[in-house]
C-alpha cells in the first residue's frame, strides 16, 4: 500500500497549528495561526466549532482556561494527498497521562494554509452486527 507521510510545508503548518494550542499569549498564538491557518478557516470537533483565525484563537483560549496545563501533541506523522490531510493526536494531562486520543482530518488551501480541521475523539466505534 502506498502511503505518503508529509515532511513538507503542510507538515510544518500542522506543527504551527499544534503549537498554537499550547500558546498562552494571544499575540503569539495569533502569529502562529497567521502562519498556518486560512483567514476563513473552519475548525470543528464534537464539542465546538470556530470560524476564522480569531474564532480559533478564542476556542483555544477557552480550552486552555478549562484545562490548564493540558497539552496536545502529535501522535503520528501528517498523511496528505490532493490537498487533504490527517494526523493522530493525544491530549496529555499536566502529569503527562494520556486523557484522550483522536484523529483530525483537514483540508489545505492553494497557499498551503489549513482551511478546515475536523476532529474526532477516541477510537472508531465498533461495527454494527450484520454490516
Helix and strand arrangement:
Elements: E1 5-6, H1 9-22, H2 26-36, E2 37-45, E3 48-51, H3 52-66, E4 71-74, E5 78-81, E6 84-92, E7 98-108, E8 114-121
Parallel strand pairs: 2-8
Antiparallel strand pairs: 1-5, 2-3, 4-6, 5-6, 6-7, 7-8
What is shown here, in short?
With 131 residues, this protein is of the alpha+beta class.
* Helical segment count: 3
Mind telling me the C-alpha Rg? 15 Å
Shape field: globular
Got a strand count? 8
Please indicate the percent range of residues in DSSP E strands (runs of 2 or more). Answer: 35-45%
Helices and strands, in order, run as EHHEEHEEEEE
Question: CA-to-CA gap between the ends?
Answer: 25 Å
Description:
The chain has 131 residues and is of the alpha+beta class. Helix content is 31%, strand content 39%. It is built from 3 helices and 8 strands. It has helices spanning 9-22, 26-36, 52-66; strands at residues 5-6, 37-45, 48-51, 71-74, 78-81, 84-92, 98-108, 114-121. Strands 1, 2, 3, 4, 5, 6, 7 and 8 form an 8-stranded mixed beta sheet that branches. β5 (78-81) and β6 (84-92) form a beta hairpin. α1 (9-22) packs antiparallel against α2 (26-36) and α2 (26-36) crosses α3 (52-66). The longest helix has 15 residues, at 52-66. 21% of the residues are buried. The model is unreliable at 1-7 (pLDDT under 50).
List keywords for this structure.
131 residues, alpha+beta, 8 strands, 39% strand, disordered N terminus
